[in-house]
Each structure stands twice: as structure tokens, then as C-alpha cells.
């Protein structure tokens, strides 16, 4: 498994204008040190090491990619770093740090979001409705309706899906938006809360090269 990083352009980390709500001004570093994960083997019932002494560091505005063959522990590491419930049954050693310090689970989930490998979307909703209900369920009541609608509009345009706003997500028996557009909706729906750290599990899985690039 290998790591790669890239600094995102100013269109993502805009300091003013309609993208200002996405600006990260609180998380200055995200790091993990000596992370090892052990699980119980289903066949032998003995401890099995999935990850051993993994370390990494991400700076603000960077996009880091975990690469490696199947079974190398990419998803396991991602779940551990994101404090996912799916990693609760595993034994983990090491430190996960935000701004050089450990933070509680409630705080971490407040500043981060996770995009599943499979799109978990309601096919009977339109693209715009999906973001709207995401905002209603995730945002605190202190954020007024007009600001919520502004965030939705901003994300629709930022992801280039404003023309599909009134289009249904779609179901196996009712055509909707494309697979690539569904991935954009999935990511946009997680950005509605302005997370400072965003985890994505195989975001281009199942997409062709054109859709992946977009």
C-alpha cells in the first residue's frame, strides 16, 4: 500500500464568494502514527494483523490517495482513520491526531464526513431534493433556510450537476442520472455540512475513465 498527495486548487479552497462556507480554517494537520490493526481470523480464530505500524500526515488543502492491491488494508486503514463503526471489532494501536492532538469521537465526526464506496441514494428523489434532505438531516437548526439553499445551489454548480437538479436519481426500473453524476451527488451531499476532513472509499469504482476524470 502506498500514499500519494496533491494540493487542491483555489477553486476548492476558495477564500471568498459563494465557496467561502467550504473553507477550512480550523484543521491545520491530520496525522496518524504507528497505527496497527489486528482482527480475529474467521477460520483459525487466531489474531491476524491487517495493518502494521502505518503512519502518515496530511496538510490542509491536500488530497491524499491510498493505493495498493486488493487485501492490502486500504479500506481498513480508511475506516480506522475515519473512526468508523465497522472498525470497532478490531484491535487498534497507534495515534490519530488532529492539529497534533487526539480528539473525542463526537468532535471528530463533527469535523469529518465519509463517502461510501457504493452510492447510498434514494432513487425516487431528485438531485436537488437529495441535497435538501441531506441538509435538513445534518445541519443544525441555527443555520437558516436561505443559507441551506445557498449551500445546495453552490454545490450543484461546483460539481457541474445544476442542469440535473430536477432529475430523479433513478432506480433499476426507472432511468435517472448517470453513474458519474451519482458519485458527484454522493460527495456533494457529504460536503453540505462543511467537513474539514473528507474520506472517500474508492470514489471512482465502477466508473469509466471519462466519468472518473470528471
In short:
The chain has 214 residues and is an alpha+beta fold. It has helices spanning 74-81, 105-111, 127-138, 145-158, 179-191, 209-213; strands at 2-7, 30-40, 47-58, 62-67, 91-98, 112-115, 197-200.
Instruction: Return residue spans where pLDDT drops below 50 for at least 5 consecutive residues.
Output: 8-16
Number of strands: 7
Question: What is the residue-mean pLDDT, rounded to a whole number?
Answer: 85
Straight-line N-to-C gap: 25 Å
Number of helices: 6
Helical amount: 25-40%
Q: Overall 3D geometry? A: globular
Query: How many strands, which pairing sense, and closed or not: the largest β-sheet?
Result: 3 strands, antiparallel
N-to-C SSE string, H for helix and E for strand: EEEEHEHEHHHEH
- Tell me the β content: 15-25%
Q: State Rg.
A: 18 Å
Q: Taking strands numbered 1, 2, ... along the chain, how are they ordered across the largest sheet? A: 3-2-5
Structure class:
alpha+beta
List keywords for this structure.
globular, two-stranded antiparallel sheet, 6 helices, 214 residues, three-stranded antiparallel β-sheet, 28% helix, alpha+beta
Describe this structure in words.
The structure is a single chain. By secondary structure, this protein is α+β, with helices and mostly antiparallel strands. It has a domain of 103 residues. It is 28% helix and 24% strand. A hairpin with a 6-residue loop joins strand 2 and strand 3. The chain is globular. The two termini are 25 Å apart. The relative contact order is 0.15.
